[in-house]
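Q: Convert this sequence to structure tokens.
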Amino acid sequence: MKGAGHVTLKQGFRTSEVVRLTGLTRRQLDHWDRTGFIGPSLARAE
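A:
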């Protein structure tokens, strides 16, 4: 079987993915980032 046993791990999520997966709004995530409640664990977008 081709590719059996191979797993690729994702290192992070784009904001659009977090919005889709959690049901939160982009605006809510941005607000929490600005206030320091939560923020990116890998790197901020530039």
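The longest helix spans residues 26-35.
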